[in-house]
Design a protein that fits this description.
Layout: H1 3-7, H2 16-20, H3 24-34, H4 38-46, H5 48-67, H6 70-73, H7 79-96, H8 103-119, H9 123-144, H10 149-191, E1 195-200, E2 207-210, H11 212-218, H12 222-225, H13 240-248, E3 252-259, E4 265-276, E5 282-291, H14 293-307, H15 317-331, E6 336-344, H16 347-354, H17 356-373, E7 379-382, E8 387-394, H18 398-413, E9 416-418, E10 421-423, E11 427-434, H19 441-457, E12 463-465, H20 468-484, E13 493-502, E14 508-519, E15 523-525, H21 527-536, H22 540-560, E16 568-572, H23 574-577, H24 582-592, E17 600-605, H25 606-611, H26 613-625, E18 629-635, H27 641-647, E19 652-655, H28 657-660, H29 667-682, E20 686-690, H30 695-704, E21 708-710, E22 718-719, H31 720-728
Parallel strand pairs: 11-12, 14-16, 16-17, 17-18, 18-19, 19-20, 20-21
Antiparallel strand pairs: 1-2, 1-5, 3-4, 4-5, 6-8, 6-11, 7-8, 9-10, 13-14, 13-21, 13-22, 14-15
Length: 730
């Protein structure tokens, strides 16, 4: 059988002989070098029987010797293992003195060597075992030669030649296994996605090995890198920690940033570790490079999202405050900073009327316009839904700051075109200046917002500077909101009633229920001081529900006591009117207090009715079918008055006081009021005018055909008991 046949088999040694380059020619060369020939085979064959008998005598001593070696004790734990090894030993001894040292013999010896290498027996053990084996065989061969040196010498020499052939083959398998392991390790290192390099120790720190990933990652020729300085010795500051680690002979880790040849930036994590010899002296360094660019880009993107508004791409509140803090540190009180807080007026109407996508496009356009008029050093930020801010370095006085505010408003007022629609924009602006209006970012922004609220309170589309009085008003406002949240539970709310007079005969037609707040410290708080707050902080629904229930309960009580009040009018806030459960709740209250629906009148503002015309029509028709009177409040101040009168089922139109205030002296106001009254009567609606303060107004409106009148001329709003006294005095 040829070695090639063994090498191409399917067993565990397939290919080993070929890998090691051991073929028939190699075996012949080794035998020739050892002078192992047919004569030697004959010498051993002649002693075969006597040696086979004699070798049993020293086998026990040989294995006792092996079991005394610590590293072999695990392989010879008990007698069973020794018996198995002795059986293998007998087979080997038989082949050793059998005289047939052909290719099959070589393959079997390679198998033994590979087994030893696989289980971890070191070459020093193998050489030592052969020494012991030959030492013991010396006496056996001498005895088998009957003490005849002429017979002993060639026989033992033949045995030495065969043993040396075996020893050489076995050691070759160790060498081959080491080469194979090294090749596998080199292949694994070279195939790694991490860049790996080995460099000499300091101070030279030159490269002696780099893998393919190193070359690819750093755009360096692999072959030309040998002898180059280690990348960790670069003079840049980012390598300081690595240079210190090298100086101290320990591990080091650093993140590096470099520019690729194409101009893009790359982030690399470098880990460096010392390589020591058996004495513990550092001889080399091994470095591992990991391209963390994707991770750094992801972190940067996440950081961007955390500090920027996703819709407009502008900095958000957090980043604005960071910019403000940095700018304040640089200014150091020697230079002013200006913060403009900007709020888009009536943005809710855009969202509600045109949809949120259109609203988003408006906000993006607003961001573009603000950025376009701001200088390079300005920071434009989006703080909330429709609130923006611009932080600038104020190099001029208050006039220049105000002029920039007007420039902002002018830029925003340019009509915005969206899908064929023209959207008119305007803004309110509040201004705070560092350091006078705040010496830290939070206070500067808070005070700019206070000025913004003042601008909105002044009617919007205006600009206000911050002052300390604004701050006091803001604090008072916060305290008022806090108290208002507890007003219902603490029973601080009151209903006042203002009479409504029949214009024809002066009799009582009804009363309007008006909310007041009896604050324990502030006294009686007027509605214009807390109703807007209730709407802003979301309490208007709770207050409105209380008013409705209290008015119905009071009307029922008057009726049971025989006090004739034809009807009670109650204002509904837009939030109340948009509640789908409103009609059912009113019906339940009327039933609970046994009040006829005709004695209740509900006043709905024009803007509330037109917010969702379809839903408004359904709600109003349900209420009207129940017999509840419906009044359109603040008529003439909205944007679609005629459409409201034509399509919605109102009974009464309430003429706003703004049309009443100057009549009859102002001919234009008198004409408008007269036209509204005539139009309402033609549509079958009754009209009530509010704000009547003198007799001339009463006479004029009665003559124009107004049905009912309400105002200080007849009575101010009164508590229930005072209203009863007023009725009794008529």
């Amino acid at each position: 059988m040829s070695i090639a046949g063994h090498a191409t088999g399917d067993g565990p040694l397939a290919g080993i002989a070929a890998e090691m380059g051991i073929d028939a020619r190699e075996i012949a060369a080794r035998k020739l070098f050892l002078e192992l020939g047919s004569t030697d085979a004959e010498q051993l064959k002649a002693l075969d029987v006597r040696l086979a008998t004699a070798q049993n005598g020293f086998a026990d001593g040989f294995y006792d010797y092996l079991r005394a070696i610590p590293e072999l004790q695990a392989l010879l734990p008990d007698e069973g293992a020794v018996r198995r090894l002795r059986t293998a030993h007998n087979r080997y001894f038989a082949s050793l003195i059998g005289g047939d040292y052909d290719e099959d013999y070589v393959v079997r010896r390679l198998q033994v060597g590979m087994t030893h290498a696989r289980i971890g027996l070191t070459p020093k053990w193998y050489v030592g075992a052969f020494r012991k084996y030959l030492s013991d065989m010396l006496q056996v061969v001498w005895q088998a030669s009957d003490g005849d040196f002429s017979r002993f010498s060639p026989a033992f020499d033949a045995l030495l030649k065969v043993v040396m052939l075996d020893l050489g083959l076995t050691l070759d398998t160790y060498i081959h296994a080491d080469k194979h392991a090294i090749a596998l390790r080199d292949q694994a290192i070279d195939s790694s996605n991490n860049g790996i390099f080995i460099a000499t120790n300091a101070p030279e720190c030159t490269l002696v090995y780099v893998n393919r990933a190193f070359s690819r990652m750093l755009d360096r020729d692999r072959e030309a890198s040998a002898g180059d300085p280690c990348p960790c010795t670069d003079g840049e500051d980012c390598f300081g920690s690595i240079r210190k680690a090298i100086a101290e002979g320990r591990d080091g880790l650093v993140n590096l940033q470099r520019q690729r040849p194409d101009g893009s930036m790359q982030w690399i994590e470098l880990f460096l570790a010392p390589v020591s010899d058996d004495s513990g002296r550092t001889t080399h360094y091994v470095g591992i490079l990991d391209d963390i660019t994707a991770r750094k880009e992801s972190e940067a993107h996440l950081d961007y999202l955390v500090r920027h508004d996703p819709l407009t791409g502008l900095p958000n509140r957090e980043l604005l405050l960071q910019h403000a803090g940095s700018a304040m540190s640089l200014a150091g009180g020697r230079q002013s900073l200006t913060l403009h807080a900007i709020d888009l007026d009536h943005f809710k109407l855009i969202n509600d009327g045109l949809g949120h996508r259109a609203g988003d496009r408006v906000l993006q356009e607003m961001a573009n316009r603000l950025t376009g008029i701001s200088g390079e050093n300005a920071c434009v930020a989006r703080l909330s839904s429709d609130e923006f801010a611009i932080l600038t370095v104020a190099s001029a006085g208050a006039d220049a700051v105000a002029a920039f505010a007007e420039q902002i408003r002018k830029a925003l007022k340019r009509p915005f075109h969206d899908g064929g629609r023209e959207i008119a924009l305007d803004a309110s602006i509040g201004i705070a200046v560092f350091p006078g209006d705040g010496d830290d970012p939070e206070s500067l922004l808070r005070n700019a917002n206070s000025a913004l609220h003042a601008a909105k309170a002044a009617g919007r589309a205006s600009t206000r500077f911050y002052d300390e009085a604004m701050n006091r008003r803001a604090d008072e406002r916060l305290a008022l909101v806090s108290d208002l949240r507890h007003a219902v539970r603490r029973q601080q709310l009151r209903l006042y009633y203002q009479p409504q007079i029949d214009a024809a005969d002066g009799t009582l037609a009804g009363v309007e229920a008006l909310l007041r707040w009896q604050h324990p410290e502030r006294g009686l708080v007027p509605p214009d001081a807390f109703i807007p707050l209730a709407e802003e902080c979301g309490l208007i629904g709770e207050l409105g529900a209380w008013v409705l229930a209290a008015a119905i309960r009071q009307a029922s009580e008057w009726l049971m006591r025989g006090i004739e009040i034809p009807r009670v009018a109650v204002n509904l806030s837009p939030k109340q009117f948009s509640d789908p459960g409103l009609a059912a709740r009113i019906e339940a209250l009327l039933a609970e207090h046994a009040l006829a629906p005709s004695r209740l009148e509900l006043e709905i503002t024009e803007s509330a009715a037109m917010h969702d015309p379809a839903a408004a029509t359904a709600t109003l028709q349900r209420l009207k079918k129940r017999g509840i009177r419906l009044a359109l409040d603040d008529f003439g101040t909205g944007h679609s008055s005629l459409a409201v009168l034509r399509t919605l089922p109102f009974d009464l139109l309430k003429l706003d006081r703004s049309f009443v205030r100057n009549i009859p002296a102002a001919a234009s106001d008198a004409a408008v009021a007269g036209t509204i009254i005539t139009l309402a009567r033609q549509l079958g609606l009754e009209v009530i005018a509010e704000g009547i303060e003198d007799g001339a107004q009463q006479v004029h409106l009665a003559a124009a055909g107004c049905h009912f009148l309400q105002g200080f001329l007849f009575s101010r709003p009164l508590p229930a008991a005072a209203l009863e006294d007023w009725l009794a005095s008529r």
